[in-house]
Write a structure and sequence with these properties.
With 354 residues, this protein is an all-alpha fold. The protein is built from 14 helices and three strands. Helix 3 crosses helix 4, helix 7 runs antiparallel to helix 9 and helix 7 packs parallel to helix 11.
């Protein structure tokens, strides 16, 4: 052929033989990382703890991803996210109905979800793709959003009395005591449900609950670790709880596990909903009732926050001295909040024995 003759001629003359070149391939473009990539990386690096804790965290993260998909439809690749996308997610969350159907998500829930999303973006940016920006940084809720305080109302006295009567009539013995302790201490459900018998001090001049973290119950934050005085009916309930628990480690064994507080809360809510359907009335409202009791009776704000487990480091100066002294101060405050007569004056020398 003509081409074969040309190659033969080049060989005879010593010319460089030109061989046909294969067509070049276009350079491969690396795929952009996706939100799914960031989610998977976040779970691998940040989700730990017991099997139950990991499962609970993963379920929450998956629910957050579904919210993002519902808000945006087509989710952009990570480098293509804009601040407008973040605002769309925020506004969707603010308008999304609660799972219970009672109104829309509250600001605290929206803020918690946005912080989760921000954490997913931040971790991937810091560890995997530092040129990526985080569209959720400095994203705030609109001023028109309902404040966290307005999410729950204190329970009217009539509602408390009726709910208490219903629980005592129909609930199991543990739930009866848990409700009474919630009402009389202002503690969180998890703090009461996870009490060990050794944490319930009913002897001595200053009975109290020791709210501490342990293998079955983590505390919400550092300020949650505290001694909460037992006065009035709460003291009676605590004594009954110790007696009922017998030799068990946990005062309320059926509610002491990781799922226990949710189970206790749901059971109490069922009874509360038989009395009131107001979405702002929840079991957690009892903490707002305690705050109101303290305010109306003139309890010092620092004492109130110490009782509720909100005391910050800056307020600790008021409590220089022993733990026994703190218990004396808070016991007087709580007795005042419930309109009980003050205890006899305690001498400083006696505190060393507490």
């Amino acid at each position: 052929t003509i081409k074969a003759n040309e190659i033969k001629r080049q060989r005879n003359t010593g010319a460089v033989i030109e061989t046909p070149q294969a067509p070049s391939r276009p350079p491969e473009i690396a795929a952009k990382p996706t939100l799914e990539d960031a989610k998977t990386f976040y779970i691998k690096e940040r989700v730990s703890g017991s099997d139950f804790a990991q499962k609970k965290r993963k379920v929450r993260i998956e629910a957050t991803i579904k919210d993002i998909e519902a808000a945006l439809g087509k989710v952009p690749d990570l480098p293509d996210w804009t601040v407008d996308d973040a605002y769309k997610v925020r506004d969707y969350l603010l308008s999304r109905p609660k799972a219970t159907g009672e109104g829309t998500l509250g600001p605290a829930s929206v803020r918690r979800t946005l912080n989760d999303i921000k954490g997913i973006f931040s971790l991937y940016r810091d560890k995997k793709m530092r040129t990526m920006h985080n569209p959720f940084e400095r994203l705030e809720l609109p001023s028109s959003a309902v404040s966290e305080k307005e999410e729950r109302d204190p329970l009217p006295e009539a509602v408390i009395s009726a709910t208490r009567a219903l629980i005592i009539e129909k609930a199991n013995p543990d739930l009866r005591l848990i409700w009474r302790l919630l009402e009389g201490t202002g503690c969180r459900v998890a703090e009461i449900a996870g009490l060990r018998v050794q944490d319930i001090i009913t002897e001595g001049d200053m009975p109290h609950l020791k709210i501490v973290g342990h293998e079955k119950r983590r505390l919400k934050n550092k300020s949650a670790k505290r001694d909460v005085p037992l006065v009035g009916d709460a003291l009676s309930a605590a004594i009954e709880a110790v007696k009922l628990a017998g030799k068990q480690v946990y005062a309320f064994a059926r509610y002491s596990g990781e799922a226990g507080p949710n189970s206790a809360s749901q059971s109490l809510m069922q009874r509360l909903r038989e009395i009131t359907t107001n979405p702002l009335h929840v079991v957690h409202s009892l903490r707002h009732n305690m705050a109101d009791r303290c305010d109306l009776s003139g309890v010092h704000p620092t004492d109130k926050t110490a009782i509720l487990g909100h005391l910050n480091a800056g307020a600790s100066e008021k409590f220089y001295g022993s733990e026994a002294t703190k218990r004396v101060v808070l016991t007087r405050a709580l007795r005042k909040a419930f309109g009980l007569p003050p205890e006899p004056v305690v001498n400083a020398g006696d505190l060393s024995k507490q």
